[in-house]
Amino acid sequence: MSKKFQRFVSVLLAAFALLVIFLPRPVVAADTHAFKAANGTIQVPNHPKRVVAGLYLGQVMALGVNVVGSTKLEMANPYLDQAKIKSMTDVGTPMSAEAVLKLKPDLIITNNESDTKKMEKIAPTVQIPYQKTQQFTSSMNYFAKLLNRPKQAKAFKKSFNTAAKKQIKRLNAAKISRKSTFGVYEMQSNKLYAYGSGFSRGAQAMLALGFKLSKPLQKVDSGAGFKEISVESLPKYQAHYMFITTSSTKEQKDPALVAMKKNPIWKSLAAVKANRVIELPFNKMYYYDPYATRAQLKIVTDALIKADK
Fold first, then answer.
1. What is the dihedral of CA 243, 248, 254, 260, to 10 degrees?
2. Helix or strand or coil: residue 36?
3. How many CA atoms lie within 13 A of 263 on its CB side?
4. Which of 193, 195, 192, 184 minimizes the C-alpha distance to 278?
5. What predicted TM-score, i.e. pTM, was given to this entire model?
6. Structural domains in the chain?
7. Which of 59, 214, 216, 275 is the most buried (most CB within 10 A)?
8. For residues 84 and 74, what is the distance between their CA atoms, to the nearest angstrom?
9. Which stretches within the chain are classed as H helix?
């Protein structure tokens, strides 16, 4: 080997070494962070691009993350961006492994173990119990950590607080005392339920406006979060304002609700006598994601002002 050739090789190697040093380093494939979920500590993408979200569609969308698949029920949420919903695929309930696989997700979020076992074979899967997402602020913080979106969570919380302040001004102008208690109830399959603050139906919005659950309902809230009650026990669980939902439509009144309204015990309630029982549409009060809760601030305020006229 000639000296000239050796020098050429040396220069070439030196140039290659410099090129390696100064070239941008490739992104590590495992661009992830550890997240503690119900199914263990999961390595999830720092910046997920294709998420399948079951129960938690609204929570993920509120943080500006792209969702490619969800369930029919969650996609029916009237408060979500319908243009984005149209581009999503219904993956079924329970989730269909075949449907999810076609979407090539980089993160799957579910709330139940049966889905988790199937989905873990497809992509990183995070199982989140419903109880982890019942309160607005803690839920936003939880998903911000999962999706690595603290700035987006902060921005949404700011917009929520601004919306709450706007409705509080309206309540004050109408001279409605926010020291009043409230209760949330639902007639479901001929059974009457009382709810705490963690099962949507406007409760989180009412708390954000400064109202409190009545003391008996606070006990329900600190327990299972809901309780089947009888009409006879309603005096115990009544509140200053009573919000009621039912899955029946206006055209088809719930027979059980109609019967309850004819009951003397119902008629004896202070809220009934003072016209402070507020019936709200199920489809607008069922959802509890950030978008829904923010919209419900105005819905419950409108209802309170109307009831007090």
1. -10
2. strand
3. 16
4. 184
5. 0.88
6. 32-148 (3.40.50.1980), 153-307 (3.40.50.1980)
7. 59
8. 13
9. 3-22, 57-62, 72-75, 82-86, 97-102, 113-119, 136-147, 150-173, 203-208, 215-222, 234-237, 255-262, 264-268, 270-273, 282-285, 290-307
Structure tokens given for 99? 């449907």
Structure tokens that stand for 88 in this block: 């999503």
6 Cβ neighbours under 8 A, 6+ residues apart: none
Q: Can you tell me the distance from the alpha carbon of 185 to that of 279, in angstroms, rounded to the nearest whole number?
A: 10
What 3-state DSSP class applies to 42?
strand
Residue 286 CA to residue 246 CA, distance in Å, equals 10
- pLDDT tens, residue order, the chain (309 aa): 555 555 654 655 555 554 444 443 343 446 999 999 999 999 999 999 999 999 999 999 999 999 999 999 999 999 999 999 999 999 999 999 999 999 999 999 999 999 999 999 999 999 999 888 889 999 999 999 999 999 999 999 999 999 999 999 999 999 999 999 999 999 999 999 999 999 989 999 999 999 999 999 999 999 999 999 999 999 999 999 999 999 776 556 899 999 999 999 999 999 999 999 999 999 999 999 999 999 999 999 999 999 988
- Identify any residues that bridge with 90 across adjacent strands, giving them in sequence order: 70
Tokens of 104: 């090539």
- Give the contacts of 294 (CB within 8 A, at least 6 positions apart): 79, 159, 160, 163
